[in-house]
Write a structure and sequence with these properties.
The protein is 33% helix and 20% strand. With 418 residues, the protein is α/β, with parallel strands linked by helices. Helix 5 runs parallel beside helix 6. Bound molecules: fe (ii) ion.
């Protein structure tokens, strides 16, 4: 299969890109003006100068909860804590059936695929003790492995120390094949429980040789400082590249002096950050009068300091966030707004936040990128560069995973009458 006349993100000029048996076999720059004379029949896709790039990466979503908004009721306060209690009601009032969880999750994956996502890291609540969610997502991960790549996180929604048998839940989840160990230290009953939960998950991750992805300081309390403990544990054990701190909303409330010290630790530990700007600008700042805080971590400052940060959706129509269609460009737009990242330079490489940076979070760089010999995983967007694609929220016209087309879209054509 051959793609003709595409731009490639990060390179000048136009290219032909070929792939066979799921692997890129050639990438050839075209002589200026030669693209019109090319044969465009047979197994050829005419990109018409559009941008080809590695797929989008969804580093943080809860596929066990997607598409449950309004069941048994909507989150009326819009707070994180009402979201958690509404999910608790869902778990205790709805019949939890593996096939139903899989069908909802698969519907969300179809949405994500439409918007160019091929790599997904999903949390799964392991304080839901029937473990139907874990069973469903592990089955789906296996069934979908040729179409999309899914990583699962054992996520203790209600805590590890603050629930009965919390450690046993985590151990059971990891023994079922989950890819990452999660935690939620700011939601534990005490600071001491929070610290202990972090120490525990490093032991568990090392035992199973798995990655770490923690819901960390997802609140507006400037005293919520579990990130420093997470980063220090990662630094001590050389686990930084395999560790993600998600949300880190409290950093938006830390004083600058403390943050300066913290950034040095983050740099030395090498850990990754994940922000969910749509979800957190909605959930946080709820207890503030005016002025209201944004409740989103320091996206720009982290990025400028060379600390890897990727953006994720967190939710698609669930108890925490009532809307969303799987479109990471929408999340990116929100992140750039709340992060004060609409300067010209930021716009030139903004797609990093939903692509290459996410690939680092997921530790998938060995099979991610447009290079001969790598797996033919790519998307083509109806635009020419980051700035234009962000501005027009350009659709993904082609999505190819391991050489297989998983989604196509014809861009809408408007007819304006003047
Ligand atoms: Fe989350």
């Amino acid at each position: 299969m051959k793609i003709v006349g595409c731009r490639i993100r990060g390179r000048e000029g136009l290219y032909n890109v070929s792939y066979e048996n799921g692997v890129f076999t050639s990438i050839t720059e075209l002589e200026p003006g030669s693209e019109e004379k090319q044969m465009k029949t047979g197994d050829v896709y005419d990109a018409k100068g559009r941008l080809l790039m590695p797929p989008f990466v969804e580093p943080h979503i809860h596929l066990d909860c997607v598409l449950t908004a309004g069941i048994p009721h909507y989150n009326m306060s819009g707070t994180l804590f009402e979201g958690i209690s509404t999910w608790q009601e869902y778990k205790t009032t709805q019949p939890l059936v593996v096939s139903e969880i899989k069908e909802r999750a698969k519907e969300a994956l179809r949405l994500l695929a439409e918007y160019g996502v091929q790599f997904v890291r999903t949390h799964v609540d392991v304080t839901e003790t029937s473990f139907k969610g874990v069973e469903a997502l592990e089955e789906l991960k296996e069934e979908m492995k040729d179409i999309m790549e899914i990583q699962t996180i054992a996520f203790p929604q209600n805590g590890i120390l603050s629930v009965r048998d919390g450690k046993a839940n985590m151990e059971r989840a990891m023994s079922m094949g989950m890819d990452c160990v999660g935690a939620i230290p700011h939601y534990e009953f005490t600071r001491e429980y929070g610290i202990e939960s972090l120490k525990y998950i490093f032991e568990l991750a090392e035992k199973y040789d798995k990655m770490i992805d923690v819901h960390c300081d997802e609140m507006d309390d400037e005293q919520s400082r579990f990130l420093e403990t997470l980063a220090t544990l990662a630094w001590e054990r050389g686990y930084g590249k395999r560790t993600v701190a998600a949300h880190t909303c409290a950093m938006g409330s830390y004083n600058d002096s403390y943050c300066t010290k913290l950034f040095r630790l983050l740099q030395e530990s090498g850990i990754n950050i994940n922000a969910c700007p749509c979800a957190n600008v909605h959930l946080q700042g709820r207890i503030d009068k005016y002025p209201k805080r944004r409740g989103v971590t320091r996206i720009k400052e982290l990025s400028d300091a060379g600390i890897n940060i990727a953006l994720g959706q967190d939710s698609i129509a669930d108890p925490w966030y009532p809307i969303g269609v799987g479109n990471l460009l929408r999340v990116l737009e929100m992140g750039l707004h709340v992060g004060h990242m609409m300067g010209y330079e930021d716009l030139q490489h903004c797609l990093d936040l939903i692509s290459t940076n996410g690939a680092k979070n997921l530790c998938i760089e060995d099979h991610y990128g447009i290079e001969v010999g790598k797996k033919a995983n790519f998307i083509i967007l109806d635009g020419k560069d980051d700035y234009e694609i962000l501005r027009f929220q350009s659709p993904v016209v082609l999505s190819v995973h391991n050489g297989m087309t998983i989604a196509e879209k014809e861009p809408a054509v408007a007819s304006v009458k003047f």
